[in-house]
Amino acid sequence: MHYRRVIHEAFGSPGQVCRVEEAVLPAIADGEVRVRMVCAPVNPADLNLVEGTYGRRPSLPCVPGGEGAGRVVESRCDQVPEGALVLVPGGCGAWSEYVQVAGERVWVVPSGIAAEQACMLRVNPATAWRMLHDFVPLERGEWVIQNAANSGVGRAVAQIGAHCGWRVVNVVRRPELLDAPDLPGVVLLDDDALVERVREVTGGARLRLALNAVGGESALRLAKVLGEGGTLVTYGAMGRQPVRIPNGMLIFGDLRLRGFWVTRWYEAAEREEAGAMLGGLFELAKRGVLQTPVERAYPLELLSEALERAREGGRSGKVLLALGPDAG
């Protein structure tokens, strides 16, 4: 049986080095499941991997796609029934019409969650969940600040934070986002007046946690609003500028600088721990607490257009690849 998948054989601009090819499905082995993929997002990490700028370079040729959702069409694993909607694991190449993988590595999605939302739960909301829970023991009502609040992780931080009773200062780079209806909390512009505005809206509260996905001057502004002993967690570099922190803030402010990469977290976590987290995210998605806007789902015939759009700013939501007949 033939199927289509995305393949790239050299590092460079995603729209130039990615193509669609046909392949033959191998026989399914004991313990495996065959998944007919429905959809997968085009995340910044996927684009970085294709460009060759990600934290790890894969062996080429490879099939990109760090996450996605599909239906099990054949199962030789007793724990995963045929017909189940599942999340496929990282590293399996989700940008493909079919994926075959050990059944113990997929996650069954509860009913009531659309595939278009489920396919985006494993990376961005998981990143948000871990950063909000793993670095500072936040108390109910406490303030948290983040930049890149309109990103996939940023929206998840705002939504999870509000659900857990934390107050979030969402920092955005475009003025038109100041009235974003789906960003719970305070929304402020990332400019030279940010530090003073944060002090005004928080009443001078001592902030202990800041989440940085931009770097450069934006990261420095976040650091300036942290109280003594505060923690700045960096998980992205959208501004393509390094984090530069004055020595005095480290010495006299006892500022803690940390990094977070959800791939490493998954690699170190026990399956029970990862399952508990995903179970919480599934419940929030089912209740409508976690919702990620989708701008468009592109069929594989429009792969280059999808990758180009995913690289552009000013989008109204995520770009998905529609991989199966159930994709919206």
Q: Beta fraction of the residues?
A: 25-35%
Q: Helix fraction? A: 25-40%
CATH class of the largest domain: Alpha Beta
- Principal-axes geometry comes out as globular
CATH topology of the largest domain: Quinone Oxidoreductase, Chain A, domain 1
Distance between the termini: 25 Å
How many runs of DSSP E, i.e. beta strands? 15
What is the mean predicted local confidence, pLDDT?
Answer: 94
- Please provide the ordered H/E string of secondary-structure elements: EHEEHEEEEHHEHEEHEHEHEHHEHE
User: Any idea what the radius of gyration is?
Assistant: 20 Å
- Specify the CATH architecture of the largest domain: Alpha-Beta Complex
CATH superfamily of the largest domain: Medium-chain alcohol dehydrogenases, catalytic domain
Q: Structural class per helix/strand content?
A: alpha/beta
Output the number of helix runs: 11
Oligomer status: single chain
